[in-house]
Amino acid sequence: MPELDVRALAAGLALSVVVAILSFFLGFPAIGTLVAIVAGGYIAGRMAGRHGLYHGAMVAVLAIVIASIAASAGNANVTNILADTLTIVLSDVLMLLCGSAGGWVSTRS
Questions:
Q1: Which one of 10, 57, 58, 99 has the fewest CB atoms closer than 10 angstroms to its CB?
Q2: Cα(76)–Cα(52) distance, rounded to whole angstroms?
Q3: pLDDT, one tens digit for every residue, the chain (109 residues)
Q4: What does pTM read for this prediction?
Q5: What's the confidence (pLDDT) of residue 90?
Q6: CA-to-CA distance for 2 and 10, rounded, in angstroms?
Q7: Could you tell me which of 42, 57, 40 has the C-alpha nearest to residue 4?
Q8: How many angstroms separate the CA atoms of 67 and 60, rounded?
Q9: What is the C-alpha R_g of the chain?
């Protein structure tokens, strides 16, 4: 397994959180979250200078953990557990793909 650059991950995660919060307040929460993950993955891969795809994916993993903790603090009122679970799994996969793509692009340019 490649060695992680913790500073690059922290910077990528911080950027992801800031962009996601700004996009929420601007009224674009869904698209803004994906853009935030791509940007965070790109910054992490660029700062690390190596294994961009891996660093981008790790930024997405950390963002998913933070989003899960934030969502669990809210009021859970689920009417269809299967649809809710599928939505969560698909959004997490999409976030992982976006973070990986951002990191991959950072080491290709």
A1: 10
A2: 36
A3: 889 999 999 999 999 999 999 999 999 988 999 999 999 999 999 999 999 999 999 999 999 999 888 877 766 677 787 888 898 899 999 999 999 999 999 988 6
A4: 0.87
A5: 93
A6: 17
A7: 57
A8: 10
A9: 14
Q: Which contiguous run of DSSP H or E holds residue 3?
A: none
- Both structure tokens of 50: 């190596």
Q: Are 61 and 98 in contact (CB under 8 A)?
A: no
* d(C-alpha 39, C-alpha 14), whole Å: 10
Q: Calculate helix-pair angle for 6-26, 29-48, nearest 10 degrees.
A: 160
Tokens of 10: 């922290």
Encoded tokens for 42: 């790109």
| Structural tokens at position 12 | 């990528």
Determine the pLDDT at residue 109. 65
